[in-house]
């Protein structure tokens, strides 16, 4: 399959620049993947499409303030990095990370930089609230390995809260008044470079309503990194690959999902990250096994799903691994027809946009 087969036309004004309030007021396009039938609804209507015994599976990752604006200590030149994943344990005010940096020419191995934020950044030392960055290795397409250095008496998370920014996708040009709006209401495991955006539509009220109707809920973790948000660059889909991302599935979540399958309930994934995690840990018969590790599972048409029956998802970028996954579940022609309908009906697209439910 050629990647160009997963393209579509999107007017730029349909790219949502800010989240809607309240969260569950977003629109919901419901696609029956058996018939191709479409329905137009509001996200708060989600419970009417689910039934007692179904299980909704959420990704409880939390976006870290991992966008760091930097200044070179030798030349004063500016650069920035996006923290992707730690490559070692945090100890004595130091930790090695894989990052995405720009401009790459200012981030050669051996370069020393200091974060622009923090009380001691101007002094060029870590100090309370400050952080230094030393580039230790260079990879392809802007990927770098760096060592972060800060005051050993302060947790790195506290330092990032002082000097870091929550990274928004490049197609969003307006700053957020409240950076919690780029977190799900159930986010609790810090580690992501981007939000699992399908979950942004849920509110505590809606979660409570789902539970009252007998819909089970459970949580797993996949920390979103390059594997989720980097665009595909190969001409053919089969030649593409994803960067590995860390996941964890607890025993309680696995048992809840397996129990739902045994009683005939549907496994409804909230987001493509949940799909990839569940399909990674699935056994040959579709049973979900607890565990943790790294997944680079790339799902494209022809894949046989073992666990996931239905999907809550946002509208994704053309030619992206996310759109390819959705097409694998519901069929390329039906998904692209649904996207054309969403464009005609002026749905809002991408991270802060509207949602789809694929049944």
Provide the fold topology.
Elements: E1 27-31, E2 38-42, E3 55-59, E4 61-63, E5 67-72, E6 78-86, E7 94-102, E8 112-115, E9 132-138, E10 143-149, H1 156-163, E11 189-192, H2 204-212, E12 216-222, H3 226-229, E13 245-249, H4 251-262, E14 267-270, H5 272-281, E15 291-295, E16 310-314, H6 321-330, H7 332-344, E17 355-358
Parallel strand pairs: 1-17, 3-12, 3-14, 4-11, 14-16
Antiparallel strand pairs: 1-2, 5-6, 5-8, 6-7, 7-10, 8-9, 9-10, 12-13, 13-15, 16-17
Short description:
This protein is of the alpha/beta class. The protein folds into 2 domains: 3-63 and 177-358, QueA-like (3-Layer(aba) Sandwich); 67-163, Beta Barrel (Thrombin, subunit H), CATH 2.40.10. Helices cover 18% and strands 26% of the residues.
What is the mean pLDDT? 94
- Please give the order of strands in the largest beta sheet: 2-1-17-16-14-3-12-13-15
Q: What is the total number of structural domains? A: 2
Helix residue percentage: 10-25%
CATH-wise, what's the superfamily of the largest domain? QueA-like
Tell me the major beta sheet. Answer: 9 strands, mixed
- C-alpha Rg, in Å? 21 Å
Strand proportion = 25-35%
How many alpha or pi helices? 7
Low-confidence stretches: 118-128
Describe the global form. globular
Q: Count the beta strands.
A: 17
């Amino acid at each position: 399959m050629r990647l160009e087969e997963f393209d579509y036309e999107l007017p730029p004004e349909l790219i949502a620049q800010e989240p809607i309030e309240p969260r569950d007021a977003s629109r919901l396009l419901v696609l029956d993947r058996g018939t191709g039938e479409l329905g137009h609804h509001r996200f708060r209507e989600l419970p009417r499409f689910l039934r007692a015994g179904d299980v909704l599976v959420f990704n409880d990752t939390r976006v870290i303030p991992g966008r760091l604006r930097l200044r070179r200590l030798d030349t004063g030149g500016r650069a920035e990095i996006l923290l992707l994943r730690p490559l070692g344990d945090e100890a004595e005010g130091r930790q090695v990370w894989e990052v995405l940096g720009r401009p790459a020419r200012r981030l050669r191995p051996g370069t020393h930089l200091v974060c622009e934020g923090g009380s001691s950044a101007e002094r060029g030392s870590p100090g309370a609230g400050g952080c230094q960055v030393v580039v230790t290795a260079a990879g392809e397409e802007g990927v770098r390995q760096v060592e972060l250095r800060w005051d050993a008496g302060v947790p790195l998370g506290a330092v990032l809260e002082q000097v870091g920014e929550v990274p928004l996708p490049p197609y969003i040009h307006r700053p957020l008044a409240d950076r919690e709006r780029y977190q799900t209401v159930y986010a609790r495991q810090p580690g992501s470079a981007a939000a699992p955006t399908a979950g942004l539509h849920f509110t505590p009220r809606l979660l409570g309503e789902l539970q009252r109707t007998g819909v089970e809920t459970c949580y797993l973790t996949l920390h979103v990194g390059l594997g989720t948000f980097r665009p595909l660059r190969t001409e053919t889909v089969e030649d593409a690959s994803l960067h590995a991302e860390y996941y964890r599935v607890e025993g309680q979540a696995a048992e809840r999902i397996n129990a739902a399958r045994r009683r005939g309930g549907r496994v409804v994934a909230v987001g493509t990250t949940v799909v990839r995690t569940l399909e990674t840990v699935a056994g040959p018969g579709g049973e979900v096994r607890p565990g943790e590790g790294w997944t680079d599972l790339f799902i494209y048409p022809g894949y046989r799903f073992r666990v996931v029956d239905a999907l809550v998802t946002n509208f994704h970028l053309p030619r992206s691994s996310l759109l390819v996954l959705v097409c694998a579940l519901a069929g390329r022609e039906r998904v692209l027809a649904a996207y054309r309908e969403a464009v005609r009906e002026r749905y809002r697209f991408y991270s802060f946009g509207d949602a789809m439910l694929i049944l």
